[in-house]
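subagent[fold] <- orchestrator: predict structure for attached chain, return tokens only, no commentary.
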Amino acid sequence: MHVDPYIVLGSSIVGLLVGLTGAGGGALMTPMLILLFNVKPSAAISSDLVAAVVMRPFGAAIHLSQRTVNMRLVGWMVLGSVPMAFLGSYLLHLLGNSSSAEDNVERFLGGALLIGAAAMVLRYGLDRRRSETRQGEVRAISARPVPTVLIGMIGGLIVGMTSVGSGSLMIVLLLFLYPTIGAKQLVGTDLTQAVPLTLAAALGALAFGHVEFSLTTSIIIGSVPAVVIGSLLSSRAPDKYIRPIITFVIFASGLKYIGVGTTALGWTLCAVLLAAAVIWLAVARPWSKDRPEPLGPGAAPT
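subagent[fold] -> orchestrator:
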């Protein structure tokens, strides 16, 4: 069985981001495998799902020990996601392995990623406009069963077909449904519900024969230690720094999947970064911040 050191390295980076933010299992890992290592989409999706069965429980266990998981939300989401994950895997099987089927999977994945990125940006804008802070305790939130089950169903179907959903889409939907909760608490809840969801999707992938076990082994070797480190750091890492990075990567992957050429993609991403920098300068105005003057010799602070 061949272990690719470059895939191990790339998987470790993605695993670290998964532990830090809850995103990246499919939104980052699958595009990396396809775009950088020329893995077929169906094989990348299925192999990533099987590897996630090993990776995600480590992150979930750490968040459970930190009490950042709402088990009621987990239960309702799993109720919707697990059956739909099997359906998604079956639909992926029906698409087959032809080039047109691979293109359909890529477009579907790209659309899912772009929706997730747009929703994250919208959520951030709404929070700033309303001056909302997501600092509530996740364990104190009252679950809303019907919409929570629907989120699970949507995420389960998408994760079964593309391996995207638990991090890049489902957490965004949860942030809209429970807007007062800190993203880090929702990361813990989402990582935990992703364990049975990923297992269901992986069983479907195994049943329909798209998994490459050498690729899966490389992903596991790189991602498992990294997701442990990321999960340990997630309680301290400022969400306001990590989340924009994930949003940007998800956006870039989505553009590539829907068919944007390499040159156009590069210019588009440069333009987005420039626009984001201009907006941040206009809003934050760091030059106008009052800075305390240094104390002179022998002066006491007031």
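orchestrator: received. Logging for downstream: The chain has eleven helices and no strands. Residues 139 and 286 are 36 Å apart (CA to CA).
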